[in-house]
Design a protein that fits this description.
This protein is an alpha/beta fold. The protein has 13 helices and 8 strands. It has an 8-stranded parallel barrel, surrounded by 7 helices. The longest helix is centred in the first third of the chain and has 21 residues.
């Protein structure tokens, strides 16, 4: 499987330099990351919301090595929220954050990440929107869930992400479905050992369906994070069987992938949220997008050959 190889490359400084220096790279990256600054991204926000879509915004960057970088990450999100406030879009544009970006891996990282993310969640709530905590590798999840639980005491709309390929996730879903929280279910995009995660696509898909059924039958708000047509169809069927209205769950897909499907679901009355990333530290995010879906890698390879 190419996925693990690509994920290993995402941690290689040599591969980072090679790929970043390729002349075609920026053209391809722009497909997934449509800007580097808040000013770049505002027209994208206006365009997508004008088409009836909703967004979750991600300021890319996970290689945080100092508390000062974590503080800068916090400030970048606060700047984004200020611009969203000016657009008066309320809950149509929310934020997604990775706690690693807020210092989770540093000394005293759990407390540092909580201290940095709280002002972001507070500022989002003040303009009528919210924040979802992205899931990262399995070693970080206990900290992420603890921070999620702490934030929800004051901001109950705070969401979190769970990953279908991890063995633990079915139990996590049962707990979260009973709590009334907002939960995004994804397959998972980190290289995880066989001791903690399914390695076979078929097993991951089966786990995804089981977990999604739990979320749909629970009291929370499920967010279906998938581009897989089969899983999207299954999600619609599970929602109907659970008696959910169209505004009681949503679909989420990445910017630049299956854009026609974004519009189709929105036209059918579904809540369709586009995960839209921006920023200069794009490498790790970009490599995981390649690892998740072979078609993304083929697109990149063809571009390298034809334009490099």
């Amino acid at each position: 499987m190419l996925g693990p190889v690509i994920l290993a490359a995402s941690r290689s400084d040599r591969m980072r330099r090679l790929i970043s220096a390729a002349p075609v790279t920026k053209q391809v990256v722009d497909r997934f990351i449509p800007g580097e600054t808040v000013g770049d991204i505002v027209p994208i926000i206006k365009d997508l919301t004008g088409k009836g879509l909703e967004l979750t915004m991600d300021v890319v960057g996970e290689d945080i090595t100092t508390p000062e970088q974590a503080t800068a990450a916090r400030d970048a999100y606060l700047q984004l929220i200020d611009r969203i406030k000016d657009l008066e879009l309320g809950p149509r544009v929310e934020m997604s954050v990775k706690l690693s970006m807020f210092g989770q891996a540093l000394d005293n990282g759990h407390e540092l990440a909580l201290a940095n993310v709280r002002p972001v969640v507070e500022a989002a709530a003040a303009i009528g929107t919210t924040v979802t905590l992205d899931a990262e590798d399995h070693t970080t999840l206990d900290s992420m869930f603890a921070i999620h639980e702490e934030l929800r005491k004051d901001f109950p709309q705070t969401g979190c992400v769970i990953q279908a390929y991890l063995f633990r996730t079915e139990a996590d879903a049962r707990r979260l479905a009973a709590s009334g929280s907002r939960v995004r279910l994804v397959k998972g995009a980190y290289k995880e050992p066989a001791e903690v995660a399914y390695q076979n696509k078929h097993e991951i898909d089966k786990a995804y369906v089981r977990i999604l059924r739990t979320l749909m039958e629970g009291d929370g708000y499920p967010m279906i994070g998938s581009h897989d047509p089969r899983l999207i169809s299954i999600g619609q069927g599970l929602a109907r069987r659970a008696g959910r209205k169209l505004d009681e769950y949503e679909f989420q897909m990445l910017y630049g992938i299956r854009s026609d499907e974004h519009m189709r679901l929105a036209a059918e009355g579904h809540r369709m949220r586009v995960y839209t990333a921006y920023g200069t530290d794009w490498y790790g995010y970009f490599m995981r997008r390649l690892a998740e879906k072979p078609a993304n890698l083929r697109f990149f390879a063809r571009s390298m050959v034809s334009k490099g």
